[in-house]
What we know:
Layout: H1 9-26, H2 29-38, E1 44-48, H3 56-65, E2 70-76, H4 89-92, E3 97-100, E4 106-111, H5 115-126, E5 134-140, H6 153-163, E6 167-172, H7 179-194, H8 196-199, E7 205-210, E8 221-224, E9 232-241, E10 247-255, H9 266-271, E11 274-281
Parallel strand pairs: 1-2, 1-5, 2-4, 5-6, 6-7, 8-11
Antiparallel strand pairs: 3-4, 7-11, 9-10
Amino acid sequence: xxxxxxxxxxxxxxxxxxxxxxxxxxxxxxxxxxxxxxxxxxxxxxxxxxxxxxxxxxxxxxxxxxxxxxxxxxxxxxxxxxxxxxxxxxxxxxxxxxxxxxxxxxxxxxxxxxxxxxxxxxxxxxxxxxxxxxxxxxxxxxxxxxxxxxxxxxxxxxxxxxxxxxxxxxxxxxxxxxxxxxxxxxxxxxxxxxxxxxxxxxxxxxxxxxxxxxxxxxxxxxxxxxxxxxxxxxxxxxxxxxxxxxxxxxxxxxxxxxxxxxxxxxxxxxxxxxxxxxxxxxxxxxxxxxxxxxxxxxxxx
Length: 301
């Protein structure tokens, strides 16, 4: 289906917010019940990222949701890309936090830590008494396709959100140099969040969304897509050897789609202009291997 991305976030959200306000404040009880029926299912939204609190994509996302729900942003002070769901507080025992101004209707906190610290802090500290209904991570500057989710801090925070029982969505690949997408993507994210695709997520489930490159009018549509073949590659090269025997190895990493991407996978679909939505699940337990092979006995038993 063709998805229009041309409506500005400001206009669409102002219309929705005004309509809801008019129904709730001015209408009789039956009409108020109708207004409640069209409200988003979420009342409180936690937003974080791995690109840092100053990233314009984070601010645009928070401002898109501010008219629809209570928005709390808890994000790292610096770029922490590639940090997966690492939580530094498990080693240090603490994190420093201070308020941050992202505009009206947004409670924001900047954390001297990693994205994982932000989620654990929010869920067990800042929002412990009033947990969020929805967690949004992003919007990340680059894509997180195929196996890139293994290293991604954007996916790592969504995975932690699902671990805490919160419906979570990771959002990736938005250029802050394209005003058409920067305006259209946050509004579309609000529509996605309100949809059954997010509302009906079960325990341990979350979504990974990747936006295509290019301006908004080049978007072909929205589709479900499984992960493609691996695109993330890394290697260490020996950089220096010292007389003491100490060696320095430098890491290099790169993306390469390869030649065998499935036509319906997220890599191929995203590269051809589609917004891809990939269903994800936490957990590595494999019940099919229970009792699948004999185990060695312990000595003297």
